[in-house]
Amino acid sequence: MTENTTLLVIGGGPGGYVAAIRAGQLGIPTILVEGADLGGTCLNIGCIPSKALIHAADAFHQAASYTGESPLGIRTGPPTIDVTQTVAWKDGIVKRLTGGVGALLKKNGVKVVQGWARILDGKTVEVGELRIRCEHLLLATGSVAVGLPFLPFGGNVVSSTEALAPATLPEHLVVVGAGYIGLELGIAYRKLGARVTVVEAAGRVLPAYDDELVKPLAASLKRLGVALHLESSVLGLAEGERGIRMRNAGGEEVALEADRVLVAVGRRPRTEGYGLESLLLDMSGRYVRIDNQCRTSMRNVWAIGDLTGEPMLAHRAMAQGEMVAEIIAGKRRHFAPTAIPAVCFTDPEVVVVGMTPQEAATLGMDCLTASFPFAANGRAMTLESTDGFVRVVARKDNHVIVGWQAVGGAVSELSTAFVQSIEMGAQLEDVAGTIHAHPTLGEAVQEAALRALGHALHI
Amino acid sequence: MGQHVIKMPDLGEGIAEVEVVAWRVQPGDAIVEDQILADVMTDKATVEIPSPVHGTVVSLGGKIGESLAVGAELIRLEVEGAGNAKPAAQASDQPADEPAEVPHGFVPEPARVAEAVASVAQAAPVVAAPPPRPAPAPAPTLRAAGEKPLAAPAVRKRAWDLGIELQYVAGSGPAGRITHTDLDAHLAGHRHRQAAAGDGRYAELEGEEAIPVIGLRRKIAEKMQLAKRQIPHFTYVEEVDVTELEALRGQLNARYGEERGKLTLLPLLMRAVVLAIRRFPDVNARVTEENGDQANVVTRYQPVHMGIATQTDAGLMVPVVRHAEARDPWSSAAEIARLADAARHGKAARDELSGSTITITSLGALGGIVSTPVINHPEVAIVGVNRIVDRPMIRNGGMVARKLMNLSSSFDHRVIDGMVAAEFIQTVRSYLESPATLFVE
After folding, report:
1. d(Cα B167, Cα B171) in Å, to the nearest integer?
2. Pairing relation of β-strands A172-176 and A195-199?
3. What count of other Cβ atoms lies within 10 Å of the Cβ of residue A254?
4. ipTM surpassing 0.95, yes or no?
5. How is domain B140-214 classified at the CATH fold level?
6. Which chain A residue lies closest to B160 (C-alpha atoms)?
7. Annotated domain spans of chain B
8. What is the reported pTM?
9. Of A331, A395, A427, Cβ closest to residue B174
10. A47 is a domain residue
11. Is residue A119 domain-shared with residue A92, that is, in the same domain?
12. How far apart are CA A121 and CA A8, in angstroms?
């Protein structure tokens, strides 16, 4: 059986489904092929379930804090948690969201084909018995967790996918990799009551972020009782598969006993198993090479999202998908964001938008940098969350803001203000001259801008 | 401080009016001695007018394209000392460089005004209506090379839709931020310069550009109009076998090229035309029209002053090789090269650009198969050269490859009949096909 369509999207993750919805809105006949559940990594085994688990862990941790001396005067008995119920609640949210995606696709006239796609050529894809011919092929196949050859997945060694749907809580979890995925999950497990040890090869946690930003997070890990082994490398499974062996900072080989090991050392683009190699597309390292319109080296073959490189973030894929649909519809578009925000939902949260002071300096930019601590923010005090700060980076000559960073409780929501100000080309004066609601964490944003201008009011 | 007036100089005999083709300075500019003030143009030549003094430009004597009488005020300068003129009494009808009167409540910042005038390229109407206007917006700035344009997402999206590269749009917002208003201004002002983004291959283009026909272009237009109006042209095309001529030319260049310079075909053709004119002197003539389009007097010339049509950046010019009859091919070649160079650099003197009695026009490799040359009025003949091509020809019953070149020549039928023209061209042809005769006769 053969079907014809204008646009064929492989992959129903945030990049693929957004492209398909937008294409449907624009009247482009579109088929979307997905082998697993709609929503991709993000909705099923990534962003959304991890945030659900983190929320549950926070709530449990909060409740547990009331068993001792609570400054709020709340006193409770020790809480318990039914992890099966927690996972079921998380699954409910995921189901509601993936169901919503399916409904949106349907509403916009997108045909969803369930099954694993196999590319025959740049215009033909096979899904089981079905052969689909298209004018435009959009690759949105995402990424998969990277495993370690000496620590293969299976048994007690899990990836983030399994860690997000635990049947039971481990007694001791070893997290390999102190990037944002490892830390988000490690902290959540710790808050749920597991003992957690993080092993990282670099000299600090979140190696991609600067010292100043990471300091409050490192302090929080210490407070939470997460054990850290920096400059340590994992060698393999320990005897009896109970834990791992590693070489610590001192060069000694030690064993870490654990009943579960989470390997979170990164993700790689999904480039194998569906005939991608037959297209002989130009690659950029492991990624499919694209231009600023997400065109690959083959005419009318497009690629978006994690398949195409860093940053591997859902919101980047979504923006690319929307753009590709519009280009196919004949509109002139480029992927040229000024900034793509990145958020770590650790405790405290970390937000990075635009350039850090170091990055600006590397580019030879003469910049003003100023930060405002949450310790001086009224709302933060009422939330018992005075760790962290907001930092702004702006050009010295014209005060145009080129970067924002924040670390602290709930700062992920500030990313909206950060990225908007950068995309709008705001100067420090624009933010300083905008009335921010009191009492909110957002006041720290205004105060950081004021401080960069030399006249912060509350510090 | 006094004022110094520079008058339109007398640029040659019989020239009463001179056209201004370019101003090199603007009112308010400080100038130094010998700095070029303007380019002016007579019938043929463009002349640069330098300043004899230091000073500041007060006013210009006319617009580009305007003809000024010799002796008219070309430019007025403010100079140290007394100067040579009284301050202009007619200040009121001078273009207002400085506001004569400033309405109440409006105090322009001089620097701002100057900036706005310079960048917007149109005089800001400083004498405003009574309601006070805000000071002009600061001039839009173009960002430094390599710097990203600053614009909100909605502005960027609209620019993409319009196919505008924001890199080329001046931003008027703080820190050079580009606003929707800036895009509007860019669209209005620079439509024709739009760099198409995205798939620009099939983009619809809009806008038009009015190009004043001035300077040399105007001279060419007038001359062509005159030639076509007055002269009943007819064109005669003949094929010339230049195989022998090209072989000879190759030999001459190989042998004498080093010391005498390389010959093109042109000087050889000139010699053939000179020799043919001996037998057909009618074609080396000029017509003086005294009563409308009636040919009154035909003046035949003994010397052959050969006009050579030459393309310059500014347009077509016809420098003249004087006494072509007295030149051997190398002398002609050297003279052609010298004149063409002078014409292309705007350095040809007036008498080097006038006085021809017959003209040759050649586009070399671009010569095409046939052309219909326009006679260089008031001459009566023009010989056009088309390109040389290898063609199969039948000779002695067999096919051979020969080099063929067409001559497309136009004649003034008032003076030259078809028979004469044909015989003249056939004579030219016979010289070219038996090139030894060029050096014998």
Report:
1. 10
2. parallel
3. 14
4. no
5. Dihydrolipoamide Transferase (4.10.320)
6. A332
7. 2-92, 103-136, 140-214, 216-440
8. 0.60
9. A427
10. yes
11. yes
12. 12
